[in-house]
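tool_call predict_complex ligand=magnesium ion
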Amino acid sequence: MTHTRGETRVGIGYDSHRFVPGSGVLLGGVTIPAAVALTGHSDADAVCHAVTDALLGAAALGDIGALFPDTDPANKGRDSVAMLREAVKRLGGAGWAPANVDVTVVCEQPKIGPHRDAIRSSLGAAVGLGADAISIKGKTNEGMGWIGRGEGLAVVAVATVIRK
Ligand code: MG
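tool_result ok
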């Protein structure tokens, strides 16, 4: 298979995690103060998980579940920023470099806006991009369904990768 330098590809990632009583919501490596926390097998950082899947998807390198199975005890409570860094390393090994990431977080609470720039910096450092190539947007679900009831949050991410 031949590759063209500068070829670009796009990937999409989705994740959701449940809220439990707690003292902060971890998103993109940043803990947002809240009366809840996200729960999951790893540290439940849904932004990191969705971005990891978007990057892996863009490079057609599988998904986060294949890379870090939740059946593996080593992944229990695992640092999701480290998983994201590992995925970026895999991309590099396959000849791809992230170019930009765009993320939408859907939840009623906490508000994402005040933490936008902190998350952009944190994610950028993990992905190897400047914060100017990382976008984070917060949306409510207008009170509808499980997100509206505050049972958890959902994240959609899109990433572009470029052939090195
Ligand atoms: Mg997840």
